[in-house]
C-alpha cells in the first residue's frame, strides 16, 4: 500500500489523498492494472464528512481498487464549477499517471455521497456541457467510466436539497442558474453507467433524487443499478460501527457496488 497526497495539475485549493496498491515484483501479472475509485465526501458543499472519505476509500482498496479521496472547494469557493473542475483535473491526473500508479485508465469510477454524489454525478452528466468545458478549458480525457452515487443530491426541483444546489450554483432557488444544476435533466446516451443507493426514509435528501436519476438513465438507455433500503437516516456512509451508523442490512451496498463494478469491468481481484 502507498498513501500520499497531491494536488491535481492545474488546480487550486484542493487536495487528493491516494491509497494505491504497490505491485510486487513477483506478481505474474505484468503490469497488473487496478480499477480506480475517486471518492467525493458529502457535506452540502459547505464541509466535508470524514465518515464518507477514508472508510469508503479503504472498502474499495480492499477489493483490489486503487482509491483517491478528493477534498474539493467549499462554500463561496464552490461556485463557478470549481469543484467539478477539480474533480475533472483529478480524473485526468490519475489517467496521466496510470503506468506509475498501476491504474487501468479505462476503469475510472467517481463515487460520491450526498453533495459529493452531486459532484460525482456532475462529472458523469456535465463533462460534455459547453458551460463546463468553458470553465475547465483543457483538452483532457475526463469522462468517468462509471459512477457510484450514494444518497446523492440530484434534482433542482421540489425534491432538491436546496442548500447544496444554492451553494454550488451561487444562485437562488428557482433561478435558471440554480435549475441548471439539476443533474437528471442532463442525462443522455453519453452518461456513464451508474450504481445508486438511497433510503426511503431519508429526510434530508429525499429518495426521489435517486428515483429521478434512475428514470433519466433508463430513458437514455444507460445501464444502472438502483437499491432503495426501507429504513435509515441520511449520511450512513458504509453503515459500519466505525462510521457510527451500524446497519448490516444497508451495509450490503458496499459489496453490491463492488460486484456491480467488477461485472461492468470484467475485473477479478
Short description:
The mean pLDDT is 95. The chain has an 8-stranded mixed β-sheet, sandwiched between helices. Helices cover 31% and strands 19% of the residues.
The average pLDDT value, as a whole number, equals 95
Count of DSSP-assigned helices: 9
Task: Indicate the structural class.
Answer: alpha/beta
Mind telling me the C-alpha Rg?
Answer: 17 Å
How is the main sheet built? 8 strands, mixed
What share of residues are in beta strands?
A: 15-25%
Shape: globular
The tally of beta strands, per DSSP, is 8
Distance between the termini: 15 Å
**Spatial order of the strands forming the largest sheet:** 1-2-4-3-5-6-7-8
H and E string:
EEEHEHHEHHEHHEHEH
Q: Give the low-pLDDT segments.
A: none
Helix content range: 25-40%
Describe the structure.
This protein has 269 residues and is an alpha/beta fold. The protein is 31% helix and 19% strand. It has helices at residues 54-61, 82-96, 98-101, 115-125, 130-136, 162-169, 176-179, 208-219, 252-265; strands at 2-6, 15-20, 34-40, 66-71, 103-113, 146-150, 194-199, 224-229. The two termini are 15 Å apart.
Secondary structure layout plus pairing:
Blueprint: E1 2-6, E2 15-20, E3 34-40, H1 54-61, E4 66-71, H2 82-96, H3 98-101, E5 103-113, H4 115-125, H5 130-136, E6 146-150, H6 162-169, H7 176-179, E7 194-199, H8 208-219, E8 224-229, H9 252-265
Parallel strand pairs: 3-4, 3-5, 5-6, 6-7, 7-8
Antiparallel strand pairs: 1-2, 2-4
Helix pairs in contact: 2-4
What descriptive keywords fit this protein?
269 residues, alpha/beta, 8-stranded mixed β-sheet, globular
Amino acid at each position: 500500500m502507498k498513501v500520499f497526497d497531491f494536488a491535481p495539475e492545474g488546480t487550486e485549493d484542493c487536495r487528493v489523498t491516494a491509497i494505491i496498491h504497490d505491485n510486487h515484483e513477483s506478481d505474474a501479472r505484468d503490469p497488473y492494472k487496478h480499477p480506480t475509485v475517486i471518492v467525493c465526501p458529502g457535506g452540502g458543499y459547505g464541509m466535508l464528512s470524514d465518515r464518507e472519505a477514508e472508510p469508503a476509500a479503504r472498502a474499495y482498496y480492499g477489493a483490489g481498487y486503487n482509491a483517491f479521496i478528493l477534498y474539493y472547494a467549499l462554500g463561496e469557493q464552490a461556485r463557478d464549477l470549481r469543484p467539478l473542475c477539480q474533480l475533472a483535473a483529478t480524473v485526468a491526473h490519475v489517467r496521466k499517471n496510470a503506468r506509475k500508479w498501476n491504474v487501468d485508465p479505462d476503469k475510472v469510477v467517481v463515487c460520491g455521497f450526498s453533495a459529493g454524489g452531486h459532484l460525482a454525478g456532475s462529472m458523469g452528466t456535465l463533462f460534455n456541457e459547453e458551460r463546463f468545458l468553458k470553465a475547465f478549458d483543457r483538452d483532457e480525457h475526463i469522462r468517468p467510466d462509471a459512477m457510484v452515487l450514494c444518497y446523492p443530491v440530484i434534482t433542482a426541483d421540489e425534491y432538491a436539497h436546496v442548500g447544496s444546489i444554492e451553494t454550488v450554483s451561487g444562485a437562488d432557488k428557482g433561478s435558471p442558474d440554480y435549475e441548471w444544476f439539476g443533474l437528471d435533466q442532463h442525462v443522455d446516451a453519453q452518461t456513464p453507467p451508474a450504481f445508486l443507493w438511497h433510503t426511503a426514509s431519508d429526510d434530508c435528501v429525499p429518495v426521489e433524487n435517486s428515483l429521478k436519476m434512475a428514470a433519466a438513465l433508463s430513458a437514455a438507455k444507460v445501464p444502472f443499478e438502483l437499491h432503495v433500503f426501507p429504513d435509515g437516516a441520511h449520511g450512513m456512509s458504509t453503515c459500519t460501527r466505525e462510521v457510527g451508523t451500524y446497519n448490516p442490512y444497508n451495509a450490503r451496498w458496499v459489496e453490491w457496488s463492488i460486484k456491480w463494478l467488477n461485472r461492468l469491468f470484467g475485473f477479478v481481484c
